[in-house]
Amino acid sequence: MYEFLTGPMLWVSFAVCFIGLAAKVVWYIRGLDWRLDRVTYTKNVKYGVRGALRSIGFWLLPFGTRNWRVKPMYTILFFGFHAGLVFVPLFLTGHAVILKERFGIDWLTMPQGVADFLTVLVLITGLGIIIRRIALPEVRIVTTAYDYLLLAISMAPFVTGFMAVQHIGDYQFWLTAHILTGEILLLAIPFTKLSHIVMFFLSRAQIGMDFGIKRGGMKSKGLAW
């Protein structure tokens, strides 16, 4: 089972994830229409790029936007959750070993203590996000079972990985469960809201170009709209 999950199944999972995300990126960009969106994407490029980078940069910075500042507790939960989601899968030593064995890729790693800390951070902040969705009426009313399912899919590799690393219970069971849930996460990314790992950058860039060109970015430059 281990050989299959870290061999053919891993290849399939990565292929589906990356090809699916690439297709979504192409589909998104091809769907842009300056006449419909009223944004001159291929003209006034300097203003558009500046606006796109500002939009992405400020939203990636904790408390960098007004929306982050008016909801400080959610901002802490959000950034804590995503920090672990991004850095642990990318730089965990065990993952680097598999990349080297299966793909021949040498990869940077983080100390195990840092990985453990970020894993616990994901679990605590993820639980906080779930509690917030249940406790706040304005959030609960727009939350569906689908949202809880995505949180479960996102957190499952961290739960199973933590159990395996800490040798709680049957190590082989938790290791297999960790690999399997990680691959389920990879397969789910391009087909669900989890695709925001790339769509965030595209949508923020589009909105940033809108503001950078039309909504104040080109004051007194003769832009008709």
Q: What do you see in this structure?
A:
It is a single chain. Helix content is 75%, strand content 0%. The protein has one domain: Fumarate Reductase Cytochrome B subunit (Up-down Bundle), CATH 1.20.950. Helix 10 packs antiparallel against helix 11 (171-188). The protein is mainly alpha-helical and 225 residues long.
Radius of gyration: 21 Å
Instruction: Describe the global form.
Output: globular
Number of strands: 0
Q: Number of helical segments?
A: 12
Q: How helical, in percent, are the residues?
A: over 70%
- The helix/strand series, from N terminus to C terminus, equals HHHHHHHHHHHH
**CATH architecture descriptor:** Up-down Bundle
When the domains are counted, the total is 1
For the largest beta-sheet, the strand count, sense and barrel status come to: none
Structural class: mainly alpha
CATH class designation? Mainly Alpha
Distance between the termini: 60 Å
Strand % is: under 5%
Say what the CATH topology is. Answer: Fumarate Reductase Cytochrome B subunit
- Unreliable stretches (pLDDT < 50, length at least 5) are none
Average predicted confidence as pLDDT: 88
Q: What is the topological layout?
A:
Layout: H1 2-5, H2 8-30, H3 34-37, H4 45-60, H5 66-70, H6 72-91, H7 93-103, H8 112-135, H9 137-140, H10 145-165, H11 171-188, H12 196-213
Helix pairs in contact: 2-11, 4-12, 6-8, 8-10, 10-11
